[in-house]
Amino acid sequence: xxxxxxxxxxxxxxxxxxxxxxxxxxxxxxxxxxxxxxxxxxxxxxxxxxxxxxxxxxxxxxxxxxxxxxxxxxxxxxxxxxxxxxxxxxxxxxxxxxxxxxxxxxxxxxxxxxxxxxxxxxxxxxxxxxxxxxxxxxxxxxxxxxxxxxxxxxxxxxxxxxxxxxxxxxxxxxxxxxxxxxxxxxxxxxxxxxxxxxxxxxxxxxxxxxxxxxxxxxxxxxxxxxxxxxxxxxxxxxxxxxxxxxxxxxxxxxxxxxxxxxxxxxxxxxxxxxxxxxxxxxxxxxxxxxxxxxxxxxxxxxxxxxxxxxxxxxxxxxxxxxxxxxxxxxxxxxxxxxxxxxxxxxxxxxxxxxxxxxxxxx
Length: 362
Hints:
alpha+beta; elongated
């Protein structure tokens, strides 16, 4: 039986018109892509422009805090060092103690001199009392001598007593007068030593000795050098056995309880910067950690104005340079509960001025 096999018909090849797309479609796609890119660029540029108007940033900023230089108020030899470098201490903790032996001896000596002055005052009071009694006795003797002389003159006038007896009575009266004057002078001298109303004389001496004792006690207390505030010990240079002098730096105490940031903004950025504005900043040591703060104040001059050698713009060729003004930023304690920030760390703060788009455009 004969069968006829038919070969399948091959597919038809597309024509050139079908392969090549219309020229208008490619141009429209390219134009659409360019339009989208342009819109994205405009939106991005607008967003960065808007942020530059409402957010003020700078990389010229550093962490600051109070640094207390600890020194001795009295000379002496170091007997005890109670702290180590980078140790945290509380206010009132012992840092360094000097040898107190000499100062304890000064206190003992001052107390002895004070007791001696008080005893001397008691003796002077007794002298004043004795002098007053002697003065009263001398007055009585003078009165008796005056009475005897008056009687002797009357008796001599009647011829009862001789001239010799009258001369004796006159001499006794003169002696009584001289004795009274001597005792009065001694009594006045004793009163002068005691001083009127306890102000001068021996009372002043007691006050002087009491002041010397108090000064000796203060110097003894100064041998114990205590921490004035809570903080961290650094730059410790004192060693056991060192002989230190008043004002000589022994160590530094850095208080990290309330640090702040000093940000040096350009003067052109200060137009809308005000105290109280919110601040966010980060530090290189803790990437991804955002700290919070507020603008505290703006310095009353530029950094150049308070530099060691301020510029002399009135001499030579002048070239205008944008100045920087230090801005103090207080740090929110709740954003740094572990006191991670250290003095001198670089900071990149961002100040949010709170301006709206309407404020910028109009």
